[in-house]
């Protein structure tokens, strides 16, 4: 098997991890969940965070093959199109993203499901070549309909990029109260991830650490099974669904929910500028 290296970068403002997967022999790379900087109060976006990662890619002369979205994020704006513009690569997400697009197109009066915005649409069982290895696609719905886990195997390690399905054990699991979310599906998805084996490393999309520890990008299946506060080994589906439903009832909407969804269902394409160069996002009011 190939020699795979993984580097993780933490976006402090949105508490998001972006992961760079590198095939050491061919210097081919994939980037998971790239983040755009966005100041909601000022209505300003920038690319300071992702530009540092792109500089590292350029400095090491890596070929970026894939820009992998684990799902349509509701808490940060994707930098996928900027990454593609600067470094190449194809933007990948789940084929069933159309259902998410259709729902939020209606909310925001958009037409993203009619446009070919993502370069590659995948489903469970598909494989994406990366140098001498393959990235395997595993559908892990529950948090959203279109959540994916990307799995890659090196000579020493199984690594899985799990999106929001699981967080660190002291934080728990993803919420299921978004449109298309489903606690029973999330439980099944977590069991599928646990089936990757105790030694598999799970790379997280977010970490919300308490003051007692630093943000952590990855953790083993064994540690999740032993310690996850919502879905440790032995917790039944019914018990999990009860805990998840009670927890979700207390959660506020994510801070960047409205701008994130509008940009992310469009694969990171920003709204077209008007004649004066201005771009606008929409805020539905009820």
**Main sheet: strands, sense, barrel:** 6 strands, mixed
Q: What structural category arises from helix and sheet content?
A: alpha/beta
Proportion of residues in helical segments: 10-25%
User: Could you say how many structural domains there are in total?
Assistant: 1
Strand content: 25-35%
Q: Write the CATH homologous superfamily.
A: Ribonuclease Z/Hydroxyacylglutathione hydrolase-like
CATH classification, class level: Alpha Beta
Q: What is the averaged pLDDT score? A: 96
Number of DSSP helical runs: 7
* Helix and strand run: EEEEEHEEHEHEEEEEHEEHHH
Number of strands: 15
Tell me the CATH architecture.
4-Layer Sandwich
Question: How are the strands ordered across the major sheet?
Answer: 1-2-3-6-8-9
In angstroms, what separates the terminal alpha carbons? Answer: 54 Å
CATH topology: Metallo-beta-lactamase, Chain A
Radius of gyration: 18 Å
Oligomer: single chain
Can you tell me the residue ranges where pLDDT is under 50 for at least 5 consecutive residues? none
Give the overall shape: globular
Fold and architecture overview:
By secondary structure, the protein is an alpha/beta fold. 25% of the residues lie in helices and 25% in strands. The strands form three sheets. A six-stranded mixed beta sheet has the order 1-2-3-6-8-9, covered by helices on one side. Strands 10-11-12-13-14-15 form a six-stranded mixed beta sheet. A three-stranded antiparallel beta sheet has the order 5-4-7. Helix 4 crosses helix 6. The longest helix is centred in the first third of the chain and has 12 residues, at 48-59. The chain is globular, with a radius of gyration of 18 Å. The relative contact order is 0.16. The mean pLDDT is 96.
């Amino acid at each position: 098997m190939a020699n795979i290296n993984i580097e993780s970068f933490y976006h402090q403002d949105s508490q998001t991890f972006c992961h760079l997967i590198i095939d050491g022999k061919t210097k081919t790379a994939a980037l998971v969940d790239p983040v755009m900087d966005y100041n909601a109060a000022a209505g300003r976006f920038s690319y300071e965070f992702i530009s540092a990662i792109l500089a590292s890619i350029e400095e090491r002369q890596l070929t970026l093959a894939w820009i992998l979205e684990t799902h349509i994020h509701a808490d940060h704006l994707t930098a996928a199109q900027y990454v593609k513009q600067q470094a190449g690569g194809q933007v990948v997400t789940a084929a069933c993203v159309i259902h998410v697009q259709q729902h939020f197109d209606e909310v925001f009066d958009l037409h993203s499901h009619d446009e070919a915005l993502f370069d590659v649409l995948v489903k469970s069982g598909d494989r994406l070549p990366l140098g001498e290895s393959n990235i395997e696609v595993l559908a892990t719905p529950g948090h959203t309909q279109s959540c994916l886990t990307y799995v890659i195997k090196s000579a020493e390690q199984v690594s899985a990029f799990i999106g929001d399905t699981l967080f660190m054990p002291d934080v728990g699991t993803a919420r299921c109260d978004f449109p298309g979310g489903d606690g029973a599906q999330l439980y099944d998805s977590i069991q599928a991830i646990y089936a990757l084996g105790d030694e598999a490393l799970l790379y997280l999309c977010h970490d919300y650490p308490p003051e007692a520890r630093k943000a952590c990008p990855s953790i083993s299946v064994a540690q999740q099974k032993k310690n996850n506060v919502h879905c440790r080994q032995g917790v039944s589906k019914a018990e999990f669904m009860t805990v998840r439903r009670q927890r979700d009832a207390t959660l506020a909407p994510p801070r960047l929910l409205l701008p994130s969804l509008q940009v992310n269902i469009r694969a990171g394409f920003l709204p077209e500028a008007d004649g004066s160069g201005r771009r606008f996002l929409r805020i539905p009011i009820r």
